[in-house]
User: Fold these one by one.
Assistant:
Number 1:
Amino acid sequence: MKINEKLFAYPWRDYRANNGNSYVIRTEEAVCLIDPGLEAFLPQLYQSMEEDGVQQGDVNSVILTHGHPDHMEGGITLGKQGVRVGIHKDEEAYIVEMGPYLAKMLGIDMPEVSFDFFLEEGELLIGGERFQVIHTPGHSPGSVCLFWEEPKILFSGDLIFAQGVGRTDFPGGDGNLLKQSIQRCRALKPAMLMPGHGEPIFEADAVEKNFDVIEKMYFDYI
Ligand SMILES: [Zn+2]
């Protein structure tokens, strides 16, 4: 699904499988895939990308909002094929420490991981476009959100969704940190929200309202 000239969104609509949303940022210089999802669904993702005119072979970087397999696993596969894969340093440490336990909880095999670059709080250039990496712990210790400065689009991973927030009951989750992270993102006044699960939100007013709903519905309980 084309969102603008440089952004393509692939929301996962089959709720029988726990797969995440993927996003592609394509400029003349770079094609970056955010959260490729589970390995098993990569062929479907590639097909959808191709329908939008984005070739799988053009992807030259992967950004992982966090290390849960429903976001990361396909990224590890791409990494083995030579694509550069980035994640926050705290998340790498978390995966190494908690991976086997997490895998058991989720009933899956945890892939062996290796990363090519680390996402740090602050500015990040993707194909000449300016993004901010925002370290947003709460769902996991090294979760990040990406904020695309010019169109003010927030990629929120599993921090927030339309009408929801990321779970904090996984190992490494922390409700207070989640709330602080949400407020940091709210202060950016995003014009669109591209979450890690569920439908994107395309208007600033609706994004703002969604923050209201989240604070009202969840902040007393997390
Ligand atoms: Zn997650």
Number 2:
Amino acid sequence: MTSDAIVVGGGVGGLVAARRLALEGFAVTLFEQSEVLGGQVARQRISGVDLDAAAESFATRGGAVAALLDELGLANDIVTPSPSPAWLHRGDGSAVPLPATGLLGIPGDPLAPDVVRAIGREAAERAARDAELPARTGTDASSLGELVRVRMGDAVVEGLLAPVVRGVHSMSPDDLPVERAHPRLRAEVLEQGSLAAAVRALRAASPAGSAVAGIRGGMFRLVDALADECRRLGVEIELGTPVEEVSADGVIVGGRRRGGVVVRAAAPPADDGRRLTLVTLVVDAPGLHDAPRGTGLLVAPDAPGVAARALTHLTAKWQWVADALPGRHAVRLSYDGVPDDAVATATRDAGILLGTPIEEVLDATEYTWARGASASTGDLPAVGEAAAGTGLASIVPHAERTARELSNSRRIRPARGAGERMEG
Ligand SMILES: Cc1cc2nc3c(=O)[nH]c(=O)nc-3n(C[C@H](O)[C@H](O)[C@H](O)COP(=O)(O)OP(=O)(O)OC[C@H]3O[C@@H](n4cnc5c(N)ncnc54)[C@H](O)[C@@H]3O)c2cc1C
């Protein structure tokens, strides 16, 4: 049996590509190895409510995700998180609000009171000496950790940068390439003359408004809407169907060949075995009504007695979650690897991080995710994490672009003919 296009993998990357190709008039088949679509955009049921089990928001940069949501009829359900700040749980066990003017924790104003409060005056003064260094100093650094260490000192790296980078990128800043942290950071240091000035310039250049947004009711609604539209457009979606082999003109599934131009949307996880476990707790804890740690905390790697690397206070961050769980609280803790006795560990950590004991856990879930897709996608058209980078703000426009390029190329010819193309 032949399709014009075969999409391998039913995460957001695969669904966006399948939808676009179907809109362009091609007969598309999508194979998904598991029984559900969405991949890392997944739903979980806890305390009778559906919440996100992995991705819970999207970066608003570029506008592609919002544009897609608009096309799918979800524009009115785009919501922004509470503007209250995230906090930092420090190496000495105390907590402070994360300085307001930073980029990944790098301060734009090293002597601002919130920076001094977070790392101490001496360290803040060392960081401020960044302004006196030649612009070139540190700009040949191979990692973000090295760049910040050279320009602002160890205390900024350990006290501000490392917890944020660990929370956002699941890695040490010493392993994070400068360009992956921000593609323009190195050039801005050279142009602006210092790291702090570069941070201020990059912050000023980003559009006003929230840098991230979510969907009322959960990010997984994007997957439901994409799947509905794909089906409406005639995409054949085969669940529980792992693709065993891939070539330029077809795939093998269940030992049988299916012909068609292949779009890879399922990169195997990188073989470094990195795993991330999320534990969500729904708790009865009146001490949390005032959101004592804002929308959540990032944890310094050396914080004593806490295994979590970040905590999100979901009912403080998203109004729709608070509305769905009246009088209760949902918190989500992230762990590198898989913690022993995850729910007990998370309950203990939540009490320490939020500064209020968690006496009653009403419900709990635990999900472990492989992190980091292998970058090798071969020569075939590829969408999704491995081809576009992590995160929906990268994956959605890349998958749209890749599908459009494919549809305009000679590599794919509609079996049913251009005259029969569907209108989109
Ligand atoms: C815990 C967590 C939190 C996150 N939070 C955010 C966030 O808040 N904002 C954000 O933008 N991003 C977030 N991300 C990242 C984001 O979710 C991913 O980058 C994105 O969803 C990846 O989409 P994808 O289509 O590339 O791949 P995936 O979602 O991994 O989908 C790939 C699909 O392919 C299927 N598949 C694999 N092999 C085969 C095969 N051989 N045959 C058929 N099917 C196959 C898989 O079952 C899967 O369904 C988060 C990720 C995690 C794990």
